[in-house]
Every structure is written in structure tokens, then in C-alpha cells.
Amino acid sequence: MTKEELAERSKQKNAHVLDLFDQPDPNPTLGSYLELVDAAGARLHGVTANEPRAVIERLKEIMTREKVFTVSALARVSGLNRSQLSSLLNSSDPKPSLLTLHRLVVALGAEQDFVLVEKMNEVVVQAVAVGEAEVERVRQEVKARHLRAVPSATWATGAEHRDREAERAAEQDASVQAKLAEVEARVEQLQQAKIALEKQRDDLAAKTARLGGMNTNLERLRAEDAAEIARLLVANRDLEKLHEEDVAEIKRLTRLNISLERHHIAEIERLRATKGWGLGKKVTFGAGCFAAGVVVATAVGRALRPSR
Q1: What is the pTM (predicted TM-score) of this model?
Q2: Residue from 10, 12, 15 nearest 39 by CA
Q3: How far apart are CA 20 and CA 5, in angstroms?
Q4: Fewer beta carbons below 10 Å: N end or C end of the chain?
Q5: 90 burial type by CB count under 10 A (0-12 exposed, 13-18 middle, 19+ buried)
Q6: Which CATH class is domain 3-118?
Q7: What angle do CA 97, 75, 307 make, to 5 degrees?
Q8: Beta strands of the chain (E only): which ranges?
């Protein structure tokens, strides 16, 4: 197939498709690329459909297979923004560029998982061929039965003859359509089985590479992932320690406040019992209570203020 033929077969504008071939470093959207792949009669190895969502799901399966647990580590190794990567992995309608997919595939060391293969493999093509032969055989048998079943004009009128011929033709069409449906269902089963085997083969190949330590990119990603998990654990422990310290400080200040309140109440009772308490003493005592309250309030505020 030439690029002109691909442009004609695709659903995209011819000029746009031809321009992609002329660019030194083309970067279409993944959806646009997959549409061209489909028009060329191909698909990505191990992916159930030529759709971005199916490709992203396969990437997530590979992350699980390789025990990559953090998006942050994958973002650092692939050079992508963490929030954008998180949105991409969780979107119901992802629209990444082909370059973004390339970066993720390389970061995961999954180049062998995303090669292009023919949409229908040899086994499926053979199944289709056998199905076509079966359909043709049915057609030939129908023709033979039709020739033997031509009614005699002595026992059927022209109208009756046409009605019976129409019925036979309908039955023949139904038989052919049923056979075609059966073949199509079988093709779909074979295709799904083939994709499952492709995934199994890729998973085994990845396990072999992991055991041999041959994938440098993936080893780097695993190291980044382990470091990120360790960092998060340390940060969590620090936060728990700060929280415990805050709780202890709040309890201490609460006890101090209760003690001051008791002291003030006792002092007020004592002064009430004392005769000749002048205005100056009252003002001094009030100012002291106010100052003590300010100190306690400030200390409590500092304890409750976020330290992170």
C-alpha cells in the first residue's frame, strides 16, 4: 500500500495524512495514528482494539506487571508532568500524542509490547478462507436444489410459482447469512485468543528480561519508584510525629489554662473576702488576668498553627 492509498482509505483528510509522511518528526495524536494503523490493516501487538483507551489500559497492565506503583516515578523517568500523566491514566477518553505514548513505553521498557502486527494473523485468515469456502458450498448446493425444485406448470400457477420461489430464495439467503454470522463469530473468538496469547508471551519475555536485569530503563524506573515510596513513608512518619507533638502541646496548654482559671477564681474569692480592696488593686489584678489570658491564647494558637 502506498501512502496515497492509505490517505484514500483513511477517514482523515488526504492532505493531512500525506503531510505526516513528509514531516521529519511527525507527532500526531494517538487516536489519529491508530486510525491510520487500522486503515493500513494493522494493530498494536497485545492491544484489543485500535483505540487510545485500549492502549492506555495495556500500559496500566504493564505497570502492574512491573510493580510500578507510583505515578510520580513514572512521570520523572518519562519526562511528563505528574498531574497530566495521572489525568491521562484515569481518563475515559484519553487523547495523548504519539510522542507521549513513546515516552511512556520507553520508560516502562515495553518496546516489545507495542510493535505493529497485521490486524488478522495467519490463523484467522485461514479461518476466514475456510468460512468463505463453506459459504460458497452452501450457495452451490442451494443452486442445485433450486434447479431440481422447479415446479411443473401442470400443478402450479404462475403466481404460486413466484411465491414459492420467493420463499426458497428467502430461506437460501437466511442460510447464507447464518453461515456468515457463524464465521464472523469464530473469527472474533480467534482474534481475542490471539491477543491473549500475545499478552502472555510479552509478559513472559518481560519476566525473563527482569530476571536477567537486561532492561536499563525499567531498572531505573523501579529504583525511582522505590525511592518515591521510601520518601513518602518518611514524610508520613514525620507528619505523624508532628501531629503527636501538636496533640501533646495542646494537652499541656489546656492543663495550664485550667490551672490559671482555678488560680484566678481562688484569687477573686480571696479578694472578695478582703475588706478595703482599693481601685488600684482591682485595676492591677484585672490587667494581670488579661495578660495571662493573652499568653495562653498565643501559645495555643502557635500549637495549632500548621507546621508543614
Answers
A1: 0.57
A2: 10
A3: 14
A4: C
A5: exposed
A6: mainly alpha
A7: 135
A8: 42-44, 116-118
How does DSSP classify residue 281? H
Q: Write down the residue that cell numbers 477518553 correspond to.
A: 93
Q: CA torsion angle for 273, 279, 282, 285 (degrees, to 10)?
A: -130
Q: Which of 108, 113, 97 is nearest to 33 (CA)?
A: 97
As given in the structure block, the three cell numbers for residue 306 are: 500548621
pLDDT, one tens digit for every residue, the chain (308 residues): 899 999 999 989 999 999 999 999 999 999 999 999 999 999 998 898 999 999 999 999 999 998 888 999 999 999 999 999 999 999 999 999 999 999 999 999 898 899 999 886 555 555 555 555 655 565 555 454 444 444 454 444 556 666 777 777 777 777 778 888 888 888 788 878 888 888 888 888 887 777 776 677 788 888 888 888 988 888 898 899 888 889 889 988 898 888 888 888 887 877 777 655 566 666 676 777 677 666 666 766 665 565 54
Amino acid identity, position 27: N
Q: Which amino acid, one-letter code, is at 272?
A: R
Question: Alpha-carbon distance 295 to 209, whole Å?
Answer: 65
